[in-house]
Amino acid sequence: MNKKAAVLAYPNSNNLGDYIQSIAAKQLLREEEVVELDRDNLDSYSGDPIKLVMNGWFMEAPSHWPPSEQIQPLFISFHLNPTVQNRMLTEKGIAYLKRHQPIGCRDLHTQALLKSKGIQTFFSGCLTLSLKRTAFVSPKKIRKGIVVISPLERLLPEPQTFRLNTTNGLFNILIQTLRFPIRYIQYKRAMSHLKAFLVFQKEEVIWCSQLIDRKRFSEKERIIAATKQLEKLANASLVITSRIHSALPAVAFETPVLFLSDGLEHPNQKSRLEGMNSFFPILTSRELETWNAQKVVAKKAHLPYVKKVQEEIKAFFKD
């Protein structure tokens, strides 16, 4: 390999899902030495020429787009969110993507958006669909327990919703403040539906979060926590979540999943789910009444996309 291999890093993230994506990328590379580059500062890279697996959500800091010319990217499992698409799909941004097309898109929204700009694409799904259960649990380990990860959190505004910045103005902060009491009632009602469903299940219920306090835990500790989260997903008999990067690794492990979509109606969130219903059922908390845990089965629709991703990465790093 002439150029070093690199994956994205998230030194300032409080979301275990980010670290899970990096773990998946490293598993696919199978290289002893893998460089980690901060996703939100790719334009500042000035080291030796490097090959980077460019997956995940772009970009929390769109002013840092496009990346350094020292980086040769493989766009795979790429998500472009409506919140930043206008600032990233400038004439310069579109030209950059065209230089590195075709772009493997994580969701159908991103694929349609890039196609509308004349960029060649294909639907790749997410790198986390390639995770191997045997890397986190013995293959003979009997599945047990219902793991509930960060359910319905999107019904409640995140702290940054009330912070003034370039993407969040005073008007939006006012609207979110006025909406909070209604959203909180919706959250409590949705949680009551979920708990009513769990009452009738015979297995132990394990509650955990996909979010972690980045001020209390170092980046290394957050990566360890992400690995432990994957172990829970690999051991579970059922996963219930409202987080994509808890649901998709469970699919990879052939762990049955129920994805709760309450609070994900806004285009900024809904865009991320386009195409995901082929991997796991997407339903509201109220619709849990019609489900029985015994009826939830793991799908294998992800396997052709995993094969495609593996082929793309192998070809990219062949030279």
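Above is the first protein from milestone M3; the second protein from the same milestone is given next.
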Amino acid sequence: MGEQVIFATGNEGKMKEIRMILAGVDVEILSLKDAGISTDVEENGTTFAENALIKARDCARRTGMMVLADDSGLEIDCLDKEPGIHSARYLGENTAYETKNRILLSRLKDVPDEQRTARFVCVIAAVFPDGREFLAEGVMEGRIAHEAKGENGFGYDPIFYVPQYGLTGGELDAEQKNSISHRGKALNRMKDRLLSEGIWRLRSKKAAGENT
């Protein structure tokens, strides 16, 4: 296994996606929990990029390691792009996503399909001990469904309809979702940047076989 890299999140659903997408890279991805870090840094940026950098910089300062962090959220056009950067804290820090989804569906109850356009946005930040910083963004376009469907994924996935599959994010399997998701796109762009810079390298076929 290659060097250890921290991904500054405690979200296990997100970590599962991240490890799947980066499976071919010779690095060990640690969550905050894996690294024994507890952080409550205030995400007071005004954009996804600013918040991702705030989290990555804080964790890099604490650990002296290379850190990845993301900020992501759901933008609903007819709600003036709510919940946006407040997606994780929408309706309160500890409000269940089932409740958030139900309330959003209620707010859009009489809105026709053509006005239910929405997107997931994700920005990944990489911060290094030497001060270098990289950013990568991914977007997944879709619309808000009329009802929550599916048990896969997490967060707002069950109410986000993906036209190319005719399914919600909650109905997509992991491989389908990772191939088109905002986080998948951002992570793959970051991976390509780090590989091209020679910072990361691909795992050998033998090592990859041993870890499957």
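Note on the second protein: DSSP finds six helices and eight strands in the chain.
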